[in-house]
Structure formats: structure tokens, C-alpha cells
């Protein structure tokens, strides 16, 4: 295309120039697209880096928070450690002052709060060849240990001793006559103590009058007893479930001297009276004052072999009826007796067991009695008429050895029993049907107790442990809630406190131990006897505990947190 210029010559402006320019435009667009893509890639990288930064920042904040928490926990532990250190230093300082003052040393191995005397045998619980006290192959007995003499000690409270050892024991299969064991040990203990003054026990002809359930009955001549003496027992404090040192005060209330081993102790339902069983008699005391209220001796009319004045016949089990009118006893003559407390006469003689009676209990509804015997049976009796209601122990799952302990649930709906065959069983009262069978102990079960809410069952065994069983659990894998270890010898008796706060056990190692049902470690150890603690019972009212021992003493204790 020619465009005329001012001078007449034309200047060519053709399509070529315009075409070349058009060919350059696509390159610019591509460059812009490329730049945009790069920008978006950079933006994505920036976004990713920001995410990583936020993640690192979050983790750093979490770590800082954890470190702050750890620092706070360490500070609290340091403060707690310092507090415990001060407590232990104070306790050590106090003990050193006592030792420097000549008040005696802490008991060591085989030594319990005073003279070291032999451990008595629990009557009838030895394997005596083919026919023992239970009428068969029986559980281990309790042979005497070597005698010795150690200085009397004052009561100390401190850490649990690590060197506490039980008296020497003999394997069950080698034990001889169980009655010989117990009488010999008790006699040796008496001989060892001959010529030594017992400042805490008063022998005298004091007289006391019974009240309430005992009516106007005049009490017997006073038995030797001690009120509020604290120079022959030792208390060791353990740890609470929260890790702090337990601060429980235990005080001796009364000490009752008997002529023989005390096989059993039991409070009345009101907590006002205490019954004990020993050789040839049961006795009732006022739990608070220590006054002896009544003695229930063996009645006439039984076999001559049991009437012989030279024949030992131990009352192995005692309990009160809930209304307090009746005292139930079980003894070696195979009879369960129901005594009228006011008249001290026998209302019923319950016959049917084939060997010695080792345990009795009364239902809280005041309707029936449970008894356990070495004949492998537990029996239920009508309290009013004396008629036999059920014999528990038949069938394939029945006990295969002697029944050592029976207990009625607080609801009166079930009966539990411990046996020499290592098994704890629970029966339904109405039908006599076996509803639970707990296996786990490695040796004979000597004592069982229901929890106050009837949800748990506690057992004590010759395997030196206590076990807490869940009555609602039917699967064997979760029936045992806790196993408690700490005793150095056989666990002979167990009990719950009325509020369920404490589990309490008595042992052949001469100690009473308190346990928290929430933890397996022992919380408190009481050394208050010079021989096996055969029986314990907690008062239904208040913080009072009774113990019966092979040292011929029954004692009551008051404890406060």
C-alpha cells in the first residue's frame, strides 16, 4: 500500500510490518502464563512452609507445656520428699532419745514387744497323720518356736521393720498332736514368764454388775485385765494410698488373762460386750470397762470322754445373736450350743456334725445359725427351734476337706465358707445352692468375711496372703480384685471395719495388720501379743478391735486416724 507523502513520493506501509508484530504477541502471553505458574508454585511453597512453621510452633508449645507440668510435678515431689524426710528425721530423733534414755530397743527378728515366747498352736488345726483333729488330712498346725528372752520395750511408731521374721515353723505334714502342741506351747510360755512380774495385768477379786442385755445378773469375780497400758505393744505406721505416712493412733483398751489359749473373740451386735472362747469355757466381758460378766462352762450330760476333768475341750467359736439374748458356741465335742445369756443355761444342743466345730455365725435377721466343721460340711440351723435347715457341702463342688470358717452376709441371703481345700465358697441361704466358688489361694483358707455392702468377700490363708473377691464377678479371671502380701506367717483371721475403710488381719507372725482395700500394701502393723493372733473381731460400733492369742490373752484396742 502506497501512501503519498508531502513530497510526492510514497512510503510503503505494508502488511509485513503488521504481521511481524502479530507473530511476537503469543510469546508474551506464554511468558505471562509462565510467570503466573511460577508465582502460584511459590505461593504454594510459602503456604506449605507456613503450615510447617505452625506445626513446629504447636509442638514447641506442647513441649513447653509438658516441661512446665514436669517442673511443677518435680517441685511437688521435692516438697513431699522434704516433708517425709523431716517426719522420718523427727521420728528417728525421738527413737534415739528413747534408746538413750534406756527404754529399750525396737524388736528385731522373731521378737515382739517384750519377751520372745513360743508361738502356740491353734488347737486342732494340725495334720495328724490319717486322722487329725478335722477327721482327715488337715491343714498345717502351729508348733512352738524356740524360747528366748528380750528386754521389754515401749511402744514405738515408725517405719515398717524390714527385718521382722516369723517364729520358726514346721511343715504341716510333720506335725503331731494338735492339742499337745497348743498346751505344750502355752505351758512353755507360762514357764518362761515364771518369776517375772506382769505390771500391766491386775489379778483381783473385783466384782462388777452386768447391765442391759445381761439384766440384773451379777458378774463373776474379776478377771486379770489391763486398762490403757502402753508399754508392751508396738505400732508401725505404713503408707496411705496417696503415698503419705499413715498417722493412726492405736491404744490398748483392755487385756483379759485366760487359763489357756484364746481361740476366738466376738463382739455383741451392740458393741457393748465381748465373748471369748478357750479351754472348757466361754466368757463374756464388758468391752469398755473390762469387767467379766459371765462364764459359760460345759454342761452335763455329754459323752464321758468330753466330761473328763483331765480332757482338754476347746471352745473354738463364739457369737452373739443380734438381739443379744443368746450366745452360740462351737466346740470339740461336735455340738453347737445356744446359751441363754441371762440364765447361763443351754437352750439348744445342735447335733449333726461328725467332728469338731470350728466356726459359728448368726444371721442379722435373728433367724438362723451357720456352723462349720472338720467334717467338710457347713450347716444352717433355725435359731428359735434348733431345727436343721440345710447342710451345705454336697455335690461335685462340695468342700473336699474341713470347713474352717463360716460367715453370714449382712443381708442374711448368703453364707460363705473357707476350707482346708484352699477354696472359698458361697451358698444361697434359701435354697442351699452353691452360687460362687473362688480359687486362688495356694494353701488352706482359715478365715472369710463379707464386706459391709455385701459386694466383696475377704479371705485369709496359710499361704500368708489375704484376697479380696468380687461377688458380682462370675468369670474366674476377674474374681480376685486384690491380693495382699505382708504377713510373715499364716493368716488366721480377717475382718472388715464397719465402714469398709479397713481390712484387718491376724497372723501366726503375732501381728495385726491394717490394709486399705484400694491398695495391696500394708498400712499399719500392730505387735500386741507374744504369740499367734488366732482370732480378731471389729466392733460394730466405733473404732474398736478385739484380738485373741496363743499367749492366753484377749485384748481390745481403740484406734483413731
Structure description:
The chain is 19% helix and 34% strand. With 561 residues, it is an alpha+beta fold. The N terminus is likely disordered. The chain is elongated. The protein contains three helices and 35 strands. The termini are far apart.
Key features?
561 residues, alpha+beta, 6-stranded mixed sheet, 5-stranded antiparallel sheet, 35 strands, elongated
Describe how the helices and strands are arranged.
Elements: E1 2-4, E2 10-12, H1 15-100, E3 157-158, H2 178-193, E4 207-209, E5 218-221, E6 225-227, E7 234-237, E8 249-257, E9 264-267, E10 273-278, E11 281-286, E12 292-297, H3 304-307, E13 315-320, E14 326-331, E15 336-340, E16 345-350, E17 357-362, E18 368-373, E19 378-382, E20 388-392, E21 403-408, E22 414-419, E23 423-428, E24 434-439, E25 445-450, E26 456-461, E27 465-470, E28 480-485, E29 491-496, E30 503-507, E31 511-515, E32 522-527, E33 533-538, E34 544-549, E35 553-560
Given helix and strand content, the structural type is alpha+beta
Terminal CA distance: 120 Å
- Poorly predicted tracts of residues: 1-22, 102-230, 300-307
Q: What can be said about the biggest beta sheet? A: 6 strands, mixed
Query: Using only CA atoms, what is the Rg?
Result: 39 Å
Number of strands: 35
**β content, as a range?**
25-35%
Share in helix: 10-25%
* Molecular shape: elongated
What is the count of DSSP helices, taking H or I runs of 4+ residues? 3
Q: How are strands sequenced across the largest beta sheet? A: 3-7-32-31-30-29
Q: Whole-number average pLDDT?
A: 76
Amino acid at each position: 500500500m502506497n501512501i503519498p507523502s508531502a513530497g510526492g513520493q510514497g512510503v510503503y506501509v505494508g502488511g509485513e510490518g503488521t504481521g511481524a508484530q502479530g507473530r511476537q504477541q503469543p510469546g508474551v502471553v506464554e511468558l505471562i502464563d509462565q510467570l503466573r505458574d511460577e508465582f502460584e508454585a511459590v505461593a504454594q511453597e510459602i503456604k506449605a512452609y507456613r503450615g510447617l512453621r505452625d506445626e513446629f510452633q504447636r509442638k514447641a508449645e506442647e513441649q513447653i507445656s509438658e516441661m512446665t507440668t514436669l517442673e511443677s510435678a518435680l517441685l511437688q515431689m521435692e516438697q513431699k520428699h522434704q516433708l517425709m524426710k523431716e517426719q522420718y528425721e523427727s521420728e528417728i530423733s525421738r527413737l534415739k532419745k528413747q534408746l538413750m534414755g534406756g527404754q529399750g530397743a525396737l524388736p528385731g527378728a522373731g521378737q515382739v514387744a517384750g519377751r520372745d515366747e513360743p508361738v502356740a498352736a491353734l488347737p486342732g488345726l494340725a495334720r495328724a497323720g490319717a486322722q487329725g483333729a478335722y477327721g482327715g488330712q488337715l491343714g498345717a498346725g502351729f508348733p512352738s518356736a524356740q524360747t528366748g528372752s528380750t528386754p521389754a520395750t515401749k511402744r514405738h511408731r515408725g517405719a515398717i521393720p524390714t527385718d521382722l521374721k516369723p517364729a520358726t515353723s514346721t511343715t504341716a505334714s510333720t506335725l503331731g498332736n494338735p492339742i499337745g502342741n497348743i498346751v505344750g506351747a502355752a505351758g512353755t510360755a507360762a514357764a518362761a514368764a515364771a518369776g517375772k512380774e506382769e505390771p500391766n495385768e491386775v489379778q483381783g477379786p473385783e466384782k462388777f454388775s452386768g447391765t442391759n442385755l445381761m439384766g440384773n445378773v451379777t458378774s463373776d469375780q474379776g478377771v486379770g485385765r489391763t486398762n490403757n497400758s502402753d508399754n508392751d505393744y508396738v505400732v508401725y505406721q505404713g503408707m496411705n494410698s496417696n503415698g503419705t505416712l499413715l498417722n493412726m493412733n492405736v491404744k490398748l483398751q483392755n487385756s483379759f488373762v485366760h487359763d489357756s489359749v484364746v481361740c476366738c473373740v466376738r463382739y455383741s451386735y451392740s458393741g457393748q460386750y465381748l465373748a471369748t472362747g478357750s479351754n472348757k469355757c466361754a466368757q463374756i466381758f464388758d468391752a469398755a470397762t473390762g469387767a467379766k460378766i459371765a462364764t459359760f462352762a460345759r454342761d452335763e450330760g455329754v459323752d464321758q470322754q468330753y466330761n473328763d476333768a483331765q480332757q482338754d475341750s476347746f471352745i473354738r467359736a463364739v457369737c452373739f445373736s443380734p438381739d443379744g439374748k443368746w450366745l452360740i458356741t462351737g466346740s470339740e465335742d461336735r455340738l453347737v450350743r445356744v446359751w441363754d445369756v441371762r440364765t447361763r443355761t443351754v437352750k439348744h444342743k445342735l447335733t449333726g456334725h461328725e467332728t469338731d466345730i470350728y466356726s459359728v455365725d448368726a444371721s442379722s435377721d435373728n433367724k438362723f445359725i451357720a456352723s462349720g466343721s472338720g467334717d467338710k460340711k457347713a450347716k444352717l440351723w433355725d435359731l428359735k427351734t434348733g431345727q436343721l435347715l440345710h447342710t451345705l457341702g454336697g455335690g461335685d463342688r462340695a468342700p473336699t476337706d474341713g470347713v474352717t470358717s463360716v460367715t453370714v452376709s449382712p443381708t442374711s441371703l448368703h453364707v460363705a465358707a473357707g476350707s482346708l481345700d484352699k477354696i472359698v465358697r458361697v451358698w444361697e441361704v434359701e435354697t442351699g445352692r452353691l452360687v460362687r466358688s473362688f480359687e486362688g489361694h495356694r494353701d488352706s483358707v482359715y478365715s472369710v468375711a463379707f464386706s459391709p455392702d455385701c459386694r466383696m468377700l475377704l479371705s485369709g490363708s496359710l499361704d500368708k496372703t489375704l484376697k479380696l473377691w468380687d461377688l458380682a464377678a462370675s468369670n474366674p479371671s476377674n474374681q480376685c480384685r486384690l491380693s495382699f502380701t505382708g504377713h510373715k506367717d499364716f493368716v488366721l483371721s480377717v475382718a472388715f471395719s464397719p465402714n469398709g475403710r479397713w481390712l484387718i488381719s491376724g497372723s501366726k507372725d503375732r501381728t495385726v495388720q491394717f490394709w486399705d482395700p484400694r491398695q495391696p500394701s500394708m498400712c499399719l502393723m500392730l505387735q500386741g501379743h507374744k504369740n499367734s493372733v488366732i482370732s480378731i473381731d471389729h466392733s460394730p460400733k466405733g473404732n474398736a478391735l478385739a484380738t485373741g492369742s496363743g499367749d492366753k490373752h484377749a485384748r481390745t484396742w481403740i484406734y483413731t486416724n
